[in-house]
Fold these 2 entries.
Entry 1:
Amino acid sequence: MKKMQKLQEKLVLLAAVFAVGIAVSGCSTMGGGGKSIEELTSAANSGDPNASLKLADHHFKQKNYTEAEVWYKKAAEQFKAK
């Protein structure tokens, strides 16, 4: 149970740090732009960092922290590559 709590704390911190980075860079993560999860996944897998970030936010809100972490990392890599 403690491991899960520590993971959740780290993910909250990761999400906060990432959100600050996005705010500083001028990007927005609010809303899905009317896109379904399937459309976001397709766009994210095609290299769209905003789609990856929106997927991460979606999974984080759904408390699917493992999947959120995967997409936050992917978004970070994609933003870095731009």
Entry 2:
Amino acid sequence: MLQKIKRNPDAILAIAIAIVLPIIFEGDSKIWVAVSFGVFILAFGRKIWVAIAGKLDERAANIETEIEDAQRLREEAQTLLADYEAKRKEAEVEADQIIMHAQKEAERDAESARLALEETLKRRSELAVQRIKHAEDEALSAVRQEAATLAIRAASNIIRKNMNDDRANILIEKSIEEARSKLH
């Protein structure tokens, strides 16, 4: 600051006047302070005003630049927000589609499993019916066989009790004649 004052002779003169005048004229100090202030303003007023105006203009330019930067950043933020909102909506739509697809797949799988279960139950039921029928046939065959065996035993017992040799010879001869007549 002293270098600026040294380069400015008006500043040196104003300071000298502001210091010397009150000493020379010893009177009311308020008047001399006012006169000194006036001289100071006359000497430095324009330069102070130019400096203040320059600083204010510079500050205004800085504020204007900051406002423009803020507006640009705001626009960028709004663009990014719109992009992210669009991406979020796309992601929601995609998630909904994935969920719907998964539900359809689950329904198809459930239907397929239900049909497979029904088919398996139907086959097992048919197999069980076949096994039951086979078991019935085997049981019926066993019963018939046992009945035939019992009938043969019963007939054999009856024939042994009621049959004698004469009667047996008559039946044999009769059977032989029947066989001859049928063969010829």
